[in-house]
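Morning. Coffee machine broken again, so started the prediction first thing and wrote up yesterday's gels while waiting. Chain of 104 residues, entered below exactly as on the submission form.
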Amino acid sequence: MICSFNTTYKHFFIGSKNLTKSPDYAYLYPWLRTGLLTSAGAEWKNRRRIITPAFHDKELLNNYVDIYNEQSAILVQRLRSIESGKEVNLYPYIASCALDIICG
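Came back before lunch.
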């Protein structure tokens, strides 16, 4: 697998000012409104700041270790099944893994 990154676009990938959600998130809005999953930019940054302390709780994190390991192994297995040398959009793989981890 080869990942390439053009430094010209670095500012798009670092920081929340340019963070926009995929239109796929629109279907979540009726249930989640403007929560962390559906918000963007400054609103996302504010919501993230509010929940960040929860992720510093060692007991909470320890409960997720098995889930992280299990879902990471599934992600690696899915990535290994991709044809060698083929250009692929990793978004669906990463998004699926992230949601499986969140849903536990």
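The chain has one domain: 22-103. Going to sketch it on the whiteboard this afternoon.
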